[in-house]
Write a structure and sequence with these properties.
Layout (H helix, E strand, L loop, with lengths): L1 E3 L5 E3 L5 E8 L5 E2 L14 E5 L3 E10 L10 E7 L5 E7 L11 E11 L5 E9 L7
Parallel strand pairs: 1-10, 8-10
Antiparallel strand pairs: 2-3, 3-4, 3-5, 6-7, 6-9, 7-8, 9-10
Length: 136
């Protein structure tokens, strides 16, 4: 059994696949991630949960060389722009820093990021270079 990193970040479809979930304002159409109860653009409260696209464009990135002991360094953090207008931050895996380019297509993959004390997979999200997306 898998558990989410944060319950409000994901939904599971009928086939058992995990997806990122954001908010869409019904009044102005703005999208947000993570979900919110009120639209930050128009302050409307008529919002709905929506599945977000899994592919986007790398807006920018950084290589982290100093971190807490829980996160071995170096690692790459990237901001990705999704088609809905959402920009999200996530670790980038499966690629070396010298292969990363601003503007490259990436996929947001919901996958196990660690194991909890009960031995369950904890599901989070990471960025993969589009050409090297893991197949499930």
């Amino acid at each position: 059994m898998a558990v989410p990193l944060r319950p409000w970040l994901f939904q599971i479809d009928a086939q058992g696949a995990w997806h990122l979930v954001g908010t869409r304002c019904r009044a102005c159409g703005a999208h947000f991630f993570p979900r919110r109860a009120v639209c930050a653009r128009c302050l409307g409260a008529d919002v709905e949960a929506v599945r977000l696209s899994a592919e986007g464009i790398l807006y920018t990135y950084t290589v982290v060389h100093q971190s807490t002991p829980e996160f071995p360094t170096p690692y790459i953090l990237g901001y990705v722009d999704l088609p809905e207008g959402v920009r999200l931050l996530a670790p980038m895996v499966g690629v070396e820093a010298d292969q990363v380019r601003i503007g490259m297509p990436v996929r947001v993959v919901v996958e196990p990021v660690r194991t909890d004390p009960e031995g369950r997979a904890v599901m989070g999200y990471r960025l993969h270079r589009l050409a090297e997306v893991p197949h499930g």
